[in-house]
Write a structure and sequence with these properties.
Elements: H1 2-19, E1 31-35, E2 42-48, H2 55-75, E3 80-86, H3 91-104, E4 108-111, H4 115-128, E5 131-134, E6 148-150, H5 155-168, E7 174-180, H6 184-199, E8 203-210, H7 219-227, E9 232-235, H8 239-252, E10 257-260, E11 282-285, H9 294-307, H10 313-332, H11 340-351, E12 356-358, E13 361-366, E14 372-373, E15 377-382, E16 385-388
Parallel strand pairs: 2-3, 2-4, 4-5, 5-6, 7-8, 7-9, 9-10, 10-11
Antiparallel strand pairs: 1-3, 11-15, 12-13, 13-14, 15-16
């Protein structure tokens, strides 16, 4: 009887201890966690802005990541557990979030979302031999070390592809550029765009910069673009500043068309913005929510049902990122009981061996440099929605 009672008590204690586990979270930055119980799943960390001026990007990545994790766990094979931390697009807070995730037991990082924080976190992941796959931080230096890979295009690739698309489709010959010289993403795209434009017969008639300390009044930059006779204004910047520039263009009667990169994805979700001003804006993106293929439509339908909004490119990149980690885990034989460094070694080797058919590209492959190979698409805002060009 005593032995039976001891077994019952031991079982009860074990159940109580296990019940206290579940989805984990850490103190400090806001976080979310989902997936299967701790210890039974590979722990995936996420870092991005869930609050602040870049929250559109971070929440889209978080949502796309969650959706993919839920689907994968429902399949019954390898299981993932997600913990997503808010960094407010601040490098120091991003580093704090990374340390919180390490304390939690993270085995691979999907992040960070934005470039400047990723440039701070990436060297730490290299020192720790922690696998890093960023869905959307596009600077070349983000993938400088062999543990880091990108789902998105690099900044130089976006600059080259933008110049090529404008030239090959005859969108304009006289181009004005307005960019953020203090931002690695914007400067990286800008520099390569100018270089490629020269080889494509595009004339840069105005090249105007602003900085993070001076990004609320764009009257001078727009006036110079207008007076230069530019037929198209190229904006390798984020949507919040693009919104102000487009408003200023309307105010000054500047009728040049507008073309940008993935940073403009978010214009249509700016609260209180006059979205009619965005009609005709073009941008390069690997994802268009109105695409008619079955994979895209299934994703959009699930996303809209779960989150009540249409997914943007960042959500799609994150969704593809999780499935990329799954493919690499399967290729590399990764299991939940491996430590983070062992997981990293397995995933580094696997990334150059896998092919992923994702929302943002068919047959996506990765170079040892961390760059992804996939074809860009262009979309145009028409009737208040992104439409494939």
């Amino acid at each position: 009887m005593k032995r039976a009672m001891s077994l019952v008590l031991a079982a009860a204690m074990a159940f109580s201890f296990a019940a206290c586990g579940g989805a984990s979270s850490t103190s400090g930055a806001a976080s979310t966690a989902s997936g299967t119980a701790s210890g039974a799943a590979i722990k995936i960390g996420g870092i991005g802005p869930l609050t602040g001026g870049a929250a559109i990007y971070g929440n889209a990545v978080k949502n796309g990541t969650e959706l993919a994790v839920e689907e994968i766990n429902a399949q019954g094979g390898l299981q993932f557990e997600l913990n997503f931390q808010d960094d407010e697009n601040d490098p120091e807070k991003s580093l704090n979030a990374y340390n919180n995730l390490k304390d939690w037991g993270m085995q691979a990082l999907l992040g960070t979302v934005t470039t400047q924080p990723c440039l701070t976190v990436a060297p730490e992941t290299a020192a720790d031999n922690m696998f890093l796959l960023t869905p959307s931080a596009s600077a070349v230096d983000v993938i400088k070390e062999d543990n880091a890979f990108q789902v998105c295009f690099t900044d130089p690739n976006q600059g080259v592809a933008s110049a090529d698309y404008i030239a090959e489709n005859g969108l304009a010959t006289k181009i004005a550029i307005i960019y953020d010289s203090s931002d690695a993403y914007s400067s990286g795209v800008h520099d390569k765009f100018k270089e490629e434009a020269a080889t494509k017969g595009l004339e840069i008639v105005a090249d105007e910069a602003f900085t993070a300390d001076n990004k609320t009044d764009f009257s001078v930059q727009v006036q110079k673009a207008k007076s230069s006779g530019a037929e198209l204004v190229f904006l390798p910047i984020y949507y919040s500043e693009a919104n102000l520039i487009i408003q200023e263009m309307n105010k000054q009667g500047c009728t040049a068309s507008v073309f940008g990169c993935d940073g403009l994805d978010g214009l249509l979700t700016i609260e209180g913005a006059d979205t009619s001003l965005f009609e005709g804006v073009m941008l390069l993106t690997p994802f268009a929510a109105d695409a008619q293929d079955e994979k895209t439509q299934n994703f959009v339908s699930k996303y809209e049902e779960k989150y009540g909004e249409t997914p943007n490119q960042f959500a799609a990149d994150a969704y593809d990122g999780v499935y990329t980690i799954l493919a690499a885990c399967e290729q590399g034989g990764v299991t939940a009981d491996m430590d983070a460094s062992t997981v990293c070694d397995a995933l580094k080797a696997a990334m150059t061996q896998i092919t992923v058919d994702g929302l943002t590209g068919e047959g996506m492959k990765w170079e040892a440099t961390g760059e992804v190979n996939k074809a860009p698409r262009a979309v145009k805002i028409q009737n208040g929605a992104y439409t494939a060009m």
